[in-house]
Amino acid sequence: MAPAVSIILPTYDRLEFLPAAIESVFAQSFTDWELLVADDGSSADTRTFLQALADPPRVRVIWLAHSGKPSVARNAALREARGEYVAFLDSDDVWLPGKLAAQMASLRRHPQRQWSYTRFAQVDAAGHARASANITDWPAPSGWILEKLLKDETVIALPSVVVSQLLLQQLGGFDEELVMCEDDELWLRLAAHSEIDGIDEPLTLIRRHGQHSGSDIAAWQDRRRVFDKAARAGAGGQHDALLRKLRVEMATGLAKSQAASGERLSVLGTLLSSVPYSWRYRAWWLGALAATVKAFAPAGVQDVIRRYRRREIAQRG
Length: 317
Description:
- This protein is α/β, with parallel strands linked by helices.
- It folds into two domains: 5-207, Spore Coat Polysaccharide Biosynthesis Protein SpsA, Chain A (Alpha-Beta Complex), CATH 3.90.550; 216-316, no CATH class.
- It has twelve helices and eight strands.
- The chain has an eight-stranded mixed β-sheet with strand order 3-2-1-4-7-6-8-5.
- Helix 8 (216-233) runs antiparallel to helix 9.
- The longest helix has 21 residues, at 240-260.
């Protein structure tokens, strides 16, 4: 008999954190699940651990050649998933024991909602709560949340999500062209097609540690692709104007990041490719000017501009 939930967990050499993630699956009070671990070409120690863990059909390991893209690993596991619903967990994060039970019970009560998420909390490498003024305690509202996602009024942590297998089959899995923002792109598609069921309790723990990777430029490139794709698909509907503004922000943000890294030709390429949908926006002209100055102006000119800006800010204050 097929399980109610297929849990998809991609991993690549995170043996320091992986056991705790898997233990949190086995600790769930909801037990009608299968676990699919998609291994992205890990080294021998991790492979040995996973080989001992495998217990078909409940726990299966999908061995993959290394791609460096979690989207590829997750999609490989999705193709093997047998559950009515799919849940996602990362190899360095942890679920609290009642997470799946709370989500499945609420989804059964609200059949019009085809996916679910929980509030999340951040912990450090040792699993201790992180306390910082920069950490936002994002709410987890229910209903149609596309506008809230676009306005950053809520944030969805990937390991908090449970989604209908039928909805995923209808919309497709993760965009494998993306390296860092593949989850955000999927959330926009899901949010345009279905209400979400929010569990406003921090039942998902997101671990922050020194092994996270990714460049600033890659992040801007991925975010730009996310909003370009959504705008072209008309995913925003009545929110298309907001999507267009976000495309402008992503283009200028990418250009500035490229300028800071000394990638002059890339700055020009980014700005020129964004002209057709950005030239009407004052913010784009200001951002384009800032990126161009950063990339091409002599250091002395940049120092003068920085001093002028600091003086202007001080006067406003």
